[in-house]
Each structure stands twice: as structure tokens, then as C-alpha cells.
Automatic annotation (TrEMBL):
Source species of the chain: Spirosoma utsteinense
Pfam families from the UniProt entry: Ribonuc_L-PSP
NCBIfam families reported in the protein's UniProt record: Rid family detoxifying hydrolase
Coiled coil start-end: none
Domain of life of the source: Bacteria
InterPro entries, A to Z: RidA, RutC-like_sf, YjgF/YER057c/UK114
Protein name: 2-iminobutanoate/2-iminopropanoate deaminase
Family designation: Belongs to the RutC family.
Amino acid sequence: MNKEIVYTEQAPAPIGPYSQAVKVTATGMLFVSGQVAIDLAPLGDIKAETHQVMKNIGAILQAADMDFTNIVKSSIFVKDMNNFAAINEVYGTFFAFEPPARETVEVARLPKDVNVEISVIAVQ
């Protein structure tokens, strides 16, 4: 299997032993690691955090010569499911047509104590 590590300085650097994204060159599939709003959005403002997370994902997609229309699956992890509507409001602005498959899961804690983390799978 041939794979390509995708990295951009327009999104937070990994905080552990993982890549921002990995592209499987034979299939054109891109696996984007969970993105959070590290130091780039005020924590506690769920809309600002979600918007920054989506901007991070957009930067990684761009580094892989893709965009939001290439996303086929997303996973959203939230600290408080009461923020579901606010997250959806922001998230939805990035998918005007044919949104990807998705799940949203409430978790006890996220890295850096953020409130939302989103990972995606995209296909070229």
C-alpha cells in the first residue's frame, strides 16, 4: 500500500504520534485525524470552536488537493450534547449540498479540554 502523509501549517500540528492526515494513493482516500481548536478559538464558545475545527479540516483537505465536497464520512465528538444544535448550525454551512454520512458522540473529555473534535474521511 502506498500512502502519503498530508501536512499543512494552516492547521494545528499533531500533539502526539499521529499525522494530520494520511492519503492512500491507490484509492484516493484521505483519512483526516480528529481536529480541535487548539489556541485558535475561545474555548467555551462552541460555535467559534466548531468553525475553527472546520477551517482546520478545510486546510488539510486543501493540502491534499481536495475540498469539503470530497468528504464522505465525518465523526463528531462533543463534550456536551446540549451543544448539538450550535455545532450543527456551523457544521451545516460547510455542506450546502449532499452532506456526508456522520455520527455524533458525547464523550467525557477531549484533548486540551476542548468542547468539540471532528475527524473526516474524504475520497478524491
